Amino acid sequence: MFIDLRSDTVTKPSKGMKEAMFMAEVGDDVFGDDPTVLALEAKAADMFGMEAALFCPSGTMTNQLAIRVHTWPGSEVICDKYSHIYLYEGGGVALNSFSSFKLLDGDRGRLNAQQVRDAINNPDDIHQPTTSLVSLENTMNKGGGCYYQLSDIEKIRTVCNEKNLPLHLDGARLFNALVETNESPKNYGELFDSISICLSKGLGCPVGSLLLGKKDFIKKARRSRKVMGGGWRQAGFLAAAGIYALENNIERLREDHARAKQIGKVLEGLPFVKNIYPIDTNIVIFELPETILASDFVARMKEQNIGCVVFGKHLVRFVTHLDFTDEHLAEFEKNIRKVG
Ligand SMILES: *Cc1c(COP(=O)(O)O)cnc(C)c1O
């Protein structure tokens, strides 16, 4: 049995999800008449109390579209130095939006209002790029799945309002934060101009992300999605999986968080574990001693049928998900003890 903890993207559709996909009523989404895509977009917009939504193939695309619509060539995007939009989107902001970043040094990837305020360039200074957007990530992947307090986001929103700047959320794993804080998606819909959420992570869909925002924003994003080749046709088969996920797979994220904490407990006693990041949601990051390279360690884990990823020279990441059960956890514990 291979225990795949490389990412929460590795899940396969469940029986119920497959049935929902199989039964989906579909149409041509480029013509705007796939009823299942329309239903998913309406459902998500309603959940967040936002005007409109756009169903896309990936979270990279929803982030890139949002940045493209909010910014203009030569402008600057404020985000943390650990942000997915900076580290893991192939330089897309330079390519798609001709914009640069101002990277901040947050608390495990989380920014505070003062940092954001200090980072906004004076629009009257012609030397500096004009700040066009502030982007936050919740939960924070590179920070080990930590999440924001809503009150901290409210303060950042206030700064954005004062400076007339839009605020974007990379909420690839937002639902992981919401089940921990018991906040509602509507709390987030009120605070952000745009939100990207992934259906293909903890929610267990094979493909798909949603971009949420105002009607005119989504209209522009839809045009840019087409330009990028992301206009898709009978996408309702995939949207059906999304509807199923929003209805069935949110509350159970708590189980993933509990198992992540269990992994932490297992790691505590092991000789090659130097330090474990706090485990807040479904991501576990730990540090190896300087004598062990993460790349070597990941290869040795694979020999013991455990999948994990290199997250730094001496950092390793595990992510729990809906295909990782208690049975897998027991097997994980047994196998990791064999790694020398
Ligand atoms: C996974 C992820 C994305 C989007 O990833 P895709 O693989 O393109 O769907 C965006 N932001 C964060 C924080 C992520 O973890």
UniProtKB/TrEMBL annotation:
SUPFAM superfamilies: PLP-dependent transferases. Coiled coil: none annotated. The keyword Lyase applies. GO terms for molecular function: L-allo-threonine aldolase activity. Residues 4-286 form the Aromatic amino acid beta-eliminating lyase/threonine aldolase domain. Keywords: Lyase, Pyridoxal phosphate. Pfam families: Beta_elim_lyase. The keyword Cell membrane does not apply. The modification N6-(pyridoxal phosphate)lysine is found at K201. Its cofactor is pyridoxal 5'-phosphate. One of its GO terms (cellular component) is cytosol. Gene3D superfamilies: Aspartate Aminotransferase, domain 1, Type I PLP-dependent aspartate aminotransferase-like (Major domain). One of its GO terms (biological process) is L-threonine catabolic process. Belongs to the threonine aldolase family. PANTHER family: L-THREONINE ALDOLASE, L-THREONINE ALDOLASE-RELATED. This is Threonine aldolase. The gene is ltaE.
